[in-house]
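Students often ask why we bother encoding 3D structure as a string. The short answer is that it lets us treat folding as translation between two languages. Here is a chain of 303 residues written in the first language.
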Amino acid sequence: MSEEQTYSAAAEVGQVRLRRTRMQRIWIDLKKAPPTAIFGMVVVFLYACMAIFAPILAPHGQAEIFVQPYAPWSSEHLFGTDQIGRDVHSRLIYGARNTIGIALTTTLLSFAIGGGFGLMAAINQSWLDQILSRFVDVLMAIPSLIFALMLLSIFGSTTGVLIIIIAVLDSTRVFRLTRAVSLNVVVMDYVEAARLRGEKLPWIMRREILPNILPPLVAEFGLRFCFVFLLIAGLSFLGVGIQPPTADWGSMVRENASLIQFAKYDIKGAITPLLPAGAIALLTIAVNFVVDWFLHKTSGLKE
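And here it is in the second language, the structure alphabet:
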């Protein structure tokens, strides 16, 4: 075996050992996680499975209409039907895919916009920083819900428009956080050394700054996802979010809210509008449990 082959084989062995060490550390961290974090991860995993395998898990289509509206709970319709005869159980499952999928896409886009501009503003602290910061100040001065309602009434409530509007509005918070944590990193010696080597701005952002600000951004991602998730559900409840026949938990609460007044005649039917509301609350609590644990883990505090 040549010297070059020996070096390549040693490098592969080193990478395998490094991956094993990382997996062992992750497993140890998971075993030490508090019960709340484990509960949150289990709930998030179950919701993710429900969103991914919605067509397999749902007994009926999300827009399939049956003869009897507001049908009672039965073996055919586990949670009854809604006001036009659609199966509530199936729409709950499809609602996980639609609501969570759109919220996740919106959050990723907001981090791409806000994180990118935040890094640029922190590195280039000149006219670009001033323009971006003042523009963000203007957007943050307007209440997000009211501004989103106004923009959606102007441009329409299609899924693409909904994602772009909420992502742009939410990116202002991401910009503020990214800029704040990046300002402490751009003055470090290794960043100055990269500049003196002639490295390009995208390389410095990706290789020198981003890895050192990742923990607070990951924690913020979980929190922003919850805020976006709740905002989309709120807009759908008001009728300007995800539009029918697409299943959405926020619109399902509004569509079945009238059943609550018949609680003394049909207690199960009265619970129907609480199911999507409970699904929203459970996911929000679970994500916050995981984020709290991650923040505690990355802060370096001892148990």
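Translate back mentally: Residues 88-123 form the longest helix (36 residues). Keep this in mind for the problem set.
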